[in-house]
Amino acid sequence: MKQLVNFTLNGETVSCEVDVRKSLLEMLREDFGMTGVKEGCGVGECGACSVIIDGQTVDSCIYLAVWIDGKQATTIEGVTHEDGTLDPIQASFIDAGAVQCGFCIPGMILSSKQLLAHNPSPTRGEIRRELSGNMCRCTGYQKIVDAVQLAAKRLDVEPHARAAIPFTIEK
Amino acid sequence: MYDMTGYHEAHSLTDVFKLMQADPTARLVAGGTDVLVKIRAAAPHYADTTLIGISRITALKGCTLEADGTFNIGALMTFDQIEHDSLIQTHLGLLSQAVSLVGGPQTRRMGTVGGNICNAGPAADSAPSLFTYNAQIEIQSESNVRQVPIAQFYVGPGRTILKPGEIVTKIKIAPEDYRGFVGHYTKFARRKALDIANLSCAALIKVSAEQRIEALRICFGAAGPVPLRMPQAEAYARHQPLNRAVLNTIGEYCLKDTQTISDWRNSKVFRDHLVTILPGRDISMALRGDEDEAIG
Ligand SMILES: Cc1cc2nc3c(=O)[nH]c(=O)nc-3n(C[C@H](O)[C@H](O)[C@H](O)COP(=O)(O)OP(=O)(O)OC[C@H]3O[C@@H](n4cnc5c(N)ncnc54)[C@H](O)[C@@H]3O)c2cc1C
Ligand code: FES
Ligand code: FES
C-alpha cells in the first residue's frame, strides 16, 4: 500500500510515493539519499535519527513517513550551507573537539540548532536538558555542551567576526 | 519497515468512526511513541494490524477553559504543549511539572496525553497527577459520548475500559478540583531523562487559613497494577497540622493502600521505603519549593 506525500525537505518542495509501512527515517535515507539521518536504536531512545519537523526536533525512526505530508523537514544536509561551508554550530562542534566517531553528531547538531533558535544563550543546564534525548557513546558530553555554548557566542555576532571567537574551556 | 498491514489517516471524528467500523481490529495511533515501539518489538495485538492515524484531527487538539472554570485538555495535546501551555502552568501546575519529566525532548513533542492514559502503563507519568485532579475522561463512539472518572478508566496494566469503536476525545478537570490546590510530582528513576519511573508519586494539597491540611490527594504510579490513590492517608490528613510527624504518618498510611512488588528494577522493600517518604517530600516541595526545609 503506497501513499503520495508532498513536503519540504531542506527548503526544497519534494514528493514521493511511499510505502505506508516506512518510517520517515527509512524514506529519507532510501528514497532521498539523506544518509546523515542515522539509525541507532530504532525505538526513540538515542536521537541519532533526529530531524527538525516544523521547527521541532523529533525521532524519525518512530515517525511514519506519511505523517510528513504537508510539513517542513530539515536534516543535517540542510544545515550545511549551500556553498558547502559549515554552519557555525557545525564549526563549533569541530573546534570544541566535540566529535569522535560522529554517529550521534547529526542529531546533536539538529537538537542544538532547535535549542538555539528558541533560546540564543542557554545555560549549561538548559543545554543538557534539550540534548537529553540524544545519546553519545564516545565523548562524555562535556565537550558537546562546550560546543553549544561556543556556537551560541558565535551566533551572537556578525558572520565575519565569528572565526575570531576561539574555543576556551570554561571552568 | 513496520510490520503493519495498512494505514488510514482520519481527518475528523466522523472519519475515525467510519474507519473503525470498516476494520474493527485496526488500532488508533496518535504520536506513535508506544504503538510504533510495540510494533517494532512484535508485540501481540500491535504488530500485523492496520493503523488509523488520528494526529490530524483538529477537534482533539489544544486546551480550553470553560466559563465555569472547567478545563478541557484535548487528547492530542503533547507533553511538550502541556508543559508550556500558560493556562495549564497557572492552574494545573502539578500536571505541567509531571509531564516535563517524560522521556526526552523528542518523546515529549510526539507523545500525547491521550496516548499516555490509553496505553495504561502503571508508570505513565501523566496519570498520578490526573488522578489527584479527579480528571474525567471523555469517551466518544459513533452514537454516544460518556464521561468516566480516571480512577475507573484503568482496568489493569495496559488495559482500559475502552470498547471497540471508542476514542478518548478529552480530559476534563473541574474548578473545585484544582482551585486553591498546589502540588508536586516525584518521578523516582535512575536517570533524569529517558527512564521509566521505579515509583512515582503526585501530591495535591490545599491548606486552610489556620495552616492545617484542608484536603490532600496522593496518587502513586508503579506501586500497583494501575495508578493508585491513597484513601486512608488522605482521610487521616484532613485537618492535621503541617509538621514533620504528620508527614511521616501520612507516608506510613500510604503502605496500607499500595500494592508494591519486587521486579528487575527494584525490590519491594525499597519501593515501600519510597512509599513512606515521597508524599512528605512532595508536600514540602509543593508548599515550600524545597524538600529539605523542615515543615512546621
Ligand atoms: C524513548 C521513549 C521514552 C518514553 N518515556 C516515557 C516516560 O518517561 N514516561 C511516560 O509516561 N511514557 C514514556 N514513554 C511512552 C510514551 O511516550 C507515552 O505513553 C505517550 O504518552 C504515548 O502517546 P502517543 O500519542 O505516542 O501514543 P500512541 O503510541 O499513538 O498510542 C498509545 C496507545 O493509546 C491508544 N490511543 C492513543 N490515543 C488515543 C485516543 N485518543 N483514544 C483512544 N485510544 C488512543 C493507541 O491505540 C495505543 O494503544 C516513552 C516512549 C519512548 C519511545
Ligand atoms: S534511531 Fe531513532 S531514536 Fe534511536
Ligand atoms: S561521537 Fe560517537 S556517539 Fe557521539
Key terms:
heterodimer; A: 171 residues; alpha+beta; Ubiquitin-like (UB roll); DNA polymerase, domain 1; five-stranded mixed beta sheet; 5 helices; 30% helix; B: 296 residues; Uridine Diphospho-n-acetylenolpyruvylglucosamine Reductase, domain 3; Enolase-like, domain 1; 3 domains; five-stranded antiparallel beta sheet; four-stranded antiparallel beta sheet; 12 helices; 14 strands; 33% helix; 23% strand; globular; binds flavin-adenine dinucleotide; binds FE2/S2 (inorganic) cluster; CO_DH_flav_C_dom_sf (chain B); xanthine dehydrogenase activity (chain B)
Outline the secondary-structure elements.
The complex is a heterodimer of chains A (171) and B (296).
Chain A: E1 2-9, E2 12-19, H1 24-31, E3 50-53, E4 56-59, E5 72-74, H2 88-95, H3 105-118, H4 124-130, H5 142-155
Parallel strand pairs in A: 1-5
Antiparallel strand pairs in A: 1-2, 3-4, 3-5
Helix pairs in contact in A: 2-5
Chain B: E1 6-9, H1 13-22, E2 27-29, H2 35-40, E3 50-53, E4 63-65, E5 71-74, H3 79-84, H4 86-91, H5 93-99, H6 105-110, H7 113-119, H8 127-132, E6 136-140, E7 145-149, H9 150-153, E8 154-156, E9 159-160, E10 167-173, E11 182-188, E12 199-207, E13 213-221, E14 228-229, H10 231-237, H11 244-254, H12 268-288
Parallel strand pairs in B: 1-3, 2-3
Antiparallel strand pairs in B: 4-5, 5-10, 6-7, 6-10, 8-9, 11-12, 12-13, 13-14
Helix pairs in contact in B: 10-11, 11-12
TL;DR?
The complex is a heterodimer of chains A (171) and B (296). Chain A is of the alpha+beta class.
